[in-house]
Specification:
Strand order of the largest sheet of chain B: 1-4
Shape of chain C: globular
Order of helices and strands of chain C: EEEHEEHEHHHEHEHEEHH
Distance between the termini of chain B: 29 Å
Radius of gyration of chain B: 19 Å
Number of domains of chain C: 2
Oligomer: heterotrimer
Strand content of chain C: 25-35%
Number of strands of chain C: 10
Chains: A mainly alpha, B mainly alpha, C alpha/beta
Distance between the termini of chain C: 32 Å
Radius of gyration of chain C: 17 Å
Number of helices of chain C: 9
Shape of chain B: globular
Strand content of chain B: under 5%
Helix content of chain B: over 70%
Helix content of chain C: 25-40%
Number of helices of chain B: 15
CATH superfamily of the largest domain in chain C: P-loop containing nucleotide triphosphate hydrolases
Largest interface: A-B, 41 and 43 residues
CATH topology of the largest domain in chain C: Rossmann fold
Strand order of the largest sheet of chain C: 6-7-8-3-9-10
CATH class of the largest domain in chain C: Alpha Beta
Structural class of chain B: mainly alpha
Chain lengths: 283, 321, 239
């Protein structure tokens, strides 16, 4: 019993890793707390659904994030970039407006009822994990989460573009003065962030059904992860995502009421004592 | 102040006229809902206007007031009139204490904090079946008479409308008066330039916490009206999406003018009821309107009105640090 | 021992390897105008921050009217009569001139704040602009407003951080006259950070010279001007 719960916790944690890394990247580059991130996740899931209806899951797995990436680039170019001199709160409110538009559009186009995406055949079997049978698909979600975490870490640490991204996150002015095209970079990173949200959506679809409330379900958890992990810190987000997934899974069995509230207590504590990452003003 | 008093009297008269002339109960009931939301938005707007702070968790005070009333009435020990007073006092005090801790937190972090606090209460209410009826919500058992008026009389659409309208006008009048006092100057100064405020000798924590408590009180009043109007409360009244809707009304209506949030509530309901008739995706249009307002006219509908009709000059400052 | 209204003793502010101030000593006598000069980054504004409590001291004390105020915050020091103006104009942009100055006076505990506010506004030629919103004022007017906010409530010690910055020659001279008048009529002692040498040497009773977080000379204007180390620090510019 414990194994399966821990396992499910890891699965959800992996999903959060994919999603929250996007949120953290967008904050790191654009200093924007993207309230619409959950709806981007939802958008990716629904687009993936439509694509897989036309062809198959695997195509959707690549195509949906690609579509979301384009959306992200446009969002940065015509949204975040134009608003970058405004108050951070203003931009947050705009992302809130975006949330409304996306949610409503998704509902209008795909309807309000729950939709399901079948698990791809190639992964529709069980694997024996420490004596407990677990769905292979869910195991692959964990693999994807790990791959994203590893890939992003390596990319940021060792690639030239990764260096620019880290530099721009820390000091955008100096970085652009050094000749790095920060606008181009930001558009790319935001595109990556939205693609990751979309990827999380596509990946989540086979085991969490598609519903209009999808985005609301994950957005709060994403914020909790990103705040607890330390804003803009990917490593922190990875760890926090896993911990949150586990706490929720285990807590759901043993201490349901406490487990649900605990992440919020942590988030509140961190925001009160160390809001520095979130201050929004770097004066 | 005299202008505000006159305006209030006119508004009250207008309300009276409307309640008599409008015969459609559906319309009256719709207007009542809009007014309750307007009061809610007013609370959120006060925080934004006087403190420059954006709260994503004010539904806590809205639903919280309703829940407090529901629970206290259930105990059947205190007269309903006092229950209302007690509920509002509790909300205000709790908000002041919370405010003392959280108003120090700057910028977006404050918003996230209010979001987290609000959600915690939402989750608690959803699960506390014994006390709050859990996710199904709870009925609010009003007695047969309130403030001497029979409940059946009060619940008639016309009287409900009038009660809510009067409350809105009185609340706005009181807020206008408060803002014209020294307290108003003080909080405006703190919002305008916190550092200079300290350098002229203002201790900034207490005024900001007080404004937070005040905004909670106004929102709580909306919660009381809602409890009267529907006789029911559910965790949805505590959900952050409700806070978000109120915030949108404030932004669209404009938070600089006192009547801005109320205007925003009207616009929201217009979109919902009228546009909603013809277009199922009215929320998309509202969302786009919201974005457009933020980008092009940050002072909202009220700001536009004041610029075009009254010729005032625009001034923009949301965060005010 | 002379009666100092303000004393900074061995004040140091270190952070992250930077020594913004390193063992600074300053005194201010009653009714005196002391000019603080020095190249950019020498620590002049930091001294004001240290004295007003805006920055925490790594070492040293600040003594205001014989009381050690080192542990007190900005608000408490203001209440005791220590006031400052800002290098980058800091006013309440959305409030009218009258409302903010009157508020500042009230916060200083002045019983008749309306009278006090009026006196200050008239003194700084802002009375006619009292119903204007601060952001609608011209640059020079806003600087005077910044000063007005610091002047209400009859502060004992006034710290001015480059009050002439951006003002025209005439405006600077006018302001200098006002300052000179204030010290005698209102009993205010002034610490004046300025780049404009003519102004500083023109109205100061004493001058302190800063360089790299340290005081390199202090005394009567004529003596300081003749000091070879000071001339060196300024490389012959305007000294």
């Amino acid at each position: 019993m414990l194994t399966i719960n821990l396992f499910n916790g890891l699965v959800y944690g992996a999903l959060l890793i994919v999603m929250c890394s996007g949120l953290a990247l967008i904050y790191g580059l654009r200093r924007v707390v993207n309230f619409a991130h959950g709806s981007l996740y939802m958008m990716g899931a629904y687009i993936g659904y439509s694509i897989s209806l036309q062809s198959n899951f695997w195509v959707a797995l690549v195509a949906a994030p690609a579509v979301m990436a384009v959306f992200g680039v446009l969002l940065d170019r015509y949204g975040f970039r134009l608003l970058q001199d405004r108050d951070p709160l203003t931009v947050v409110l705009v992302t809130f407006g975006l949330l409304l538009v996306i949610e409503d559009s998704v509902q209008t186009y795909w309807g309000k009822s729950n939709l399901s995406v079948p698990v791809p055949e190639a992964l529709a079997f069980s694997v024996d994990l420490l004596g407990t049978p677990v769905p292979a698909y869910r195991l692959s979600v964990i693999v994807i989460g790990a791959a994203v975490a590893l890939g992003l870490s390596l990319w940021l640490r060792y690639s030239k573009v990764g260096l620019f991204v880290r530099a721009a996150s820390t000091d955008p002015v100096t970085t652009s003065m050094q000749g790095v095209n920060t606008d181009f970079l930001s558009a790319g990173v935001v595109g990556l962030g939205t693609a990751l949200a979309g990827l999380a959506g596509v990946v989540a679809a086979p085991f969490l059904s598609l519903s209009p409330s999808m985005s609301a379900d994950v957005i709060i958890d994403s914020f909790v992860v990103v705040v607890i992990g330390g804003l803009g810190s990917l490593a922190g987000a990875f760890i926090a995502a896993l911990v949150l997934g586990m706490v929720q899974a285990i807590g759901a069995v043993y201490l349901p009421d406490a487990a649900v509230l605990l992440p919020f207590v942590f988030m509140i504590a961190i925001l009160i004592w160390k809001p520095s990452g979130f201050a929004g003003s770097r004066t | 102040m005299k202008k505000s008093l006159l305006g209030a009297l006119l508004a009250l008269t207008l309300g009276g006229v409307v309640s008599v002339l409008v015969s459609s109960n559906t319309l009256l009931s719709l207007l009542t809902q809009a007014i309750i939301y307007a009061v809610f938005a007013l609370g959120v707007g006060v925080l934004l206007k006087q403190n420059g702070m954006v709260s994503f968790g004010h539904a806590l005070f809205f639903g919280g007031a309703s829940y407090l009333i529901g629970v206290l009435l259930q105990m059947q020990r205190i007269p309903a009139e006092w229950v209302i007073v007690l509920a509002l006092l509790t909300i205000t005090l709790a908000a002041f204490l919370i405010g003392l801790v959280i108003v120090r937190v700057p910028g977006v972090a404050f918003g996230m904090l209010t979001l987290a606090i609000g959600q915690m209460f939402f989750l608690t209410a959803s699960r506390a079946r014994g006390l709050t009826g859990g996710a199904d919500g709870m009925n609010i058992e009003w007695p047969s008479h309130l403030f001497g008026v029979s409940m059946s009389q009060m619940l008639k659409p016309a009287s409900m409308f009038l009660t809510c309208w009067t409350t809105l006008v009185v609340v706005m009048l009181l807020l206008a008066w408060l803002m014209s006092t020294r307290f108003g100057s003080l909080t405006e100064a703190v919002r305008d330039n916190e550092e200079r405020a300290r350098f002229i000798g203002i201790r900034t924590l207490l005024p900001r916490a007080a404004v937070y408590a005040l905004s909670a009180l106004v929102t709580g009043v909306a919660g009381v009206l809602s409890a009267l109007n529907t006789g029911f409360v559910s965790p949805e009244s505590l959900h952050w999406s409700l806070s978000g809707v109120a915030l949108m009304m404030v932004v669209v209506g404009g938070f600089k003018a006192l009547w801005g949030p109320a205007a925003g509530a009207v616009v929201y309901f217009l979109f919902k009821e009228i546009l909603g008739e013809h277009a199922t995706h009215w929320m998309t249009i509202f969302g786009i309107t919201l974005i457009a307002v933020i980008v092009f006219s940050p002072t909202g509908v009220a700001g536009l009105f004041e610029r075009w009709v009254l010729g005032k000059k625009p001034s923009v400052k949301v965060g005010g640090h | 021992m002379t009666n100092y209204v303000l004393q900074a003793e061995d004040v140091a502010i270190h952070y992250g390897g930077v020594k913004a101030l390193d063992g600074v000593a300053l005194t201010l006598e009653k009714g005196q105008i002391r000019g603080l000069i020095g190249p950019n980054g020498a620590g002049k504004s930091t001294v004001i921050d240290a004295i007003t409590g805006r920055r925490r001291l790594t070492r040293g004390r600040i003594v205001l009217l014989s009381d050690d105020v080192s542990a007190l915050g900005v608000v408490e020091r203001r209440a005791r009569g220590l006031s400052r103006s800002f290098q980058r104009t800091s006013v309440f942009s959305e409030m009218t001139v009258w409302r903010q100055v009157e508020l500042a006076s009230h916060k200083m505990g002045v019983i008749d704040s309306a009278n006090d506010a009026e006196a200050v506004l008239r003194e700084l030629d802002l009375w006619n602009l009292r119903d204007q919103t601060a952001q609608d004022l011209g640059y020079g007017e806003q600087r005077r407003l910044d000063l007005a906010l610091a002047l209400v409530g009859r502060p004992k010690v006034l710290l001015l951080d480059e009050p002439m910055a951006g003002l025209s020659v005439k405006e600077s001279l006018d302001l200098a006259q006002h300052l000179k008048k204030l010290t005698s009529t209102w009993d205010v002692s002034v610490l004046l950070v300025e780049h404009d040498m003519d102004v500083v040497f023109g109205i100061s009773d004493a001058v302190t010279v800063f360089e790299l977080g340290r005081v390199i000379a202090s005394g009567a204007p004529a003596d300081v001007r003749a000091n070879p180390r000071v001339r060196e620090a300024y490389l012959g510019s305007a000294a």
